[in-house]
Amino acid sequence: MEFSSAFKSSQHSIPSPNGAFIATLVPPRLFLRSTSSLEPIRIINVNPDFASRVSFIRWSPRIATESTSTCSSVSPLASRSGYFEGAATTKRRSGIDKTEEEGGSSMRILLADEDTVRVWDVSDAKWTAAVQGVGGGLGKIANVEFGRNADEVLVFSEFGVKLTLWSLVSGRSVEIRDPKFTSKGYGYRPCTSHFALLTRPAAHDVITIHAHTTYRLVNSFSVPTTDAQGLRWSPCGRWIAVWDSASSGYKVLVYTADGHLYRTYAAGQDGKVDGLGVKSLEWSPQGDYLAVGGHDKRITLLSNFTFSPVVFLDHTSTIKLPRVPVWQEQVSASGQRSYITAAQPMCPPTVSSLPTDANPRVGISTIAFNNPDGTLIATRNDSMPTTVWIWSLKLLSPFAVIVQHSPVRSISWHPTVPNLLMIQCNNDQGVVYLWSSTWERPRIVTTPLDRLLGKHDAKWIRPETPRFEVSSPYPGMEDARARQENRPMMMSGDFGSYFIGYVEEEGSESRQPPQKSPYAVTGKEPADYFTKMPLNPRNASNLDGTPSSSGSSSRSPGVATEEVDDTFQYRGRIFVQS
């Protein structure tokens, strides 16, 4: 692993969704640094009082290109409703394609405290915006996010009172009452950008669907749940998946895009599942599977046609997989870390929960599909908190199992490298674990921090599309730089400083270091470097696959629709300067 020099940081450091910049708030300045040159491209002076109160820092979303879109033709059921008919075809129409709208290609960043939101444009130093008096006497800001593009800001008030959607172009706002959650339970439909929100105006759950740009209420429908826990649009935009609370049993409802109940999957109806129900839910990147993680230590993959179970992935307490590598982290008395191949059968460490626990430590809490094809899944069962399971959907069986020394805190796949996984653990400050299907064994990476200040964290950096001059007088140097810039990158650091790390290919230590040139990637000597094992790819075809296999349609109660007034400009003040 190769690291850059250290850069000053704070608890507010975050890479942009397109991987081009890293934003760092070091009061009273906001630094925007390029990930390619590692030089600051802009330094923004922030009001010192405001900077000291900042609780949120957000980048505007990355706009998906046509080549990366998973949009497809709209389903026959969805075409019954006029407002969705023809809107989700592969060829986008002007006004629906987000990249065609003003602000669709802009990159902006916002800072927010409990009452004020301030926005800056990365490329236009003269443009700035401020939204003041957001609470309007109804509580502080509980969460703030950009909307479908850089021209919209979503502000959630405390206690679920309201969601306010601000336009940075017109200065107008739209209020939606009674959002059920402040950080989940909402989403934009792929391709058409219709906005779906889970609300709870009374003693029942209601989903409202709003038009893009105006956020006019298009439809609303009641959901037959006891306590719905969230909603997810499918990548194709045809379906909305809703799941009920675990205490209500195993229940997942699938709606068409226009609000018709298409399928209810309730695994406990036949008595096979006893106890708590759904704990997590995720769509595969291509939308061909809906993965449901339950408190029964099982992941159920539902087909996107019938939404019936096609595969069960069971997390057994005893691992006996003769042809699957099981890696176990070892920590010596001196603190040295390494991976060994665990002898099988083995029993990973487990934890137990009391019947009185409000959040029992059992069930599948993490489901992470790899990008962009979704052929690998990384999962975590809360009753085995130190174990990461990696499953192959091509083989329909475990691909690898990694048993850590400390409980796993997060699992994240690289945005563009489909077989590269990052693992972070609770008590391993300054340490990051990497796994790849092409490596002989997982890697343990220690960030070169002199001392830790606060919580250590690491994030992947999405690679930019390389841009090189064909007529360069140094073609060899350009090729070397291209190879370096194509290496997977991550940001790793704490509240005091951060580094940019470059993941080397296995066996790269035998390669001669590149000559220094005017096109050096960092312009500085690396702070640390780790040697790697010789290349010895494992043949995945030797793994055994053991597939497992195990409906009625109904229309939800109709709710009268009404148009939402989008001129609540007197509830707050917005100032845009350009």
From TrEMBL:
InterPro entries: Centrosome-WD_assoc, WD40/YVTN_repeat-like_dom_sf, WD40_rpt. Residues 506-578 are annotated as: Disordered. Residues 547-558 have a biased composition (Low complexity). Pfam families: WD40. Coiled coil: none annotated. One of its GO terms (cellular component) is MWP complex. It comes from the Eukaryota. Gene3D superfamilies: YVTN repeat-like/Quinoprotein amine dehydrogenase. One of its GO terms (biological process) is microtubule anchoring at mitotic spindle pole body. PANTHER family: WD REPEAT PROTEIN 8-RELATED, WD REPEAT-CONTAINING PROTEIN WRAP73. This is Uncharacterized protein.
